[in-house]
Amino acid sequence: MPSPRTDPKPLSDTEIRQLMADLEAGRHPTVWFTPQAVGIPEGRSGKIIAIADPSEPDFLRVRPAGVNDTLAFSPAELTLTRPARRRER
Questions:
Q1: What confidence tens digit (pLDDT) does each residue in 12-44 have?
Q2: Domain coordinates of the chain in residue numbers?
Q3: How many angstroms separate the CA atoms of 35 and 77, rounded?
Q4: CA proximity to 83, closest of 48, 38, 16, 33
Q5: Contact 48/19 with Cβ under 8 angstroms?
């Protein structure tokens, strides 16, 4: 029997601070999109490119995998929890 689906946790303030530290160190950390992400399928990945002023609702700048543009997202639309791989049947 399949386990019940649980939605991934959105980014916490602590995780956002870690993402900022990663960017300052020259790294572009990977995040995954939650069901709340608009226009990007749940479970797809992207790289954090920049973090704007947190007073903006969508202050996290992400380049989704396979996309050349950098798009703005809120913490609720992103997670650090990698989704489980889907089994092929």
A1: 999 999 999 999 999 999 999 999 999 999 999
A2: 13-76
A3: 7
A4: 33
A5: yes
Residue type, position 43, single letter: G
Q: Do 61 and 45 meet the contact criterion of CB atoms below 8 Å apart?
A: no
CB-side neighbour CA atoms (13 Å) of 7: 12
**Burial level of 11, CB count in 10 A (0-12/13-18/19+)?**
buried
Distance (Å, whole) CA 27 – CA 41: 24
CATH topology of domain 13-76: SH3 type barrels. (2.30.30)
Report whether 16 contacts 81 (CB < 8 A): no
Q: Is the pLDDT of residue 4 over 80?
A: no
Q: Is 17 helix (H, G, I), strand (E, B) or coil?
A: helix
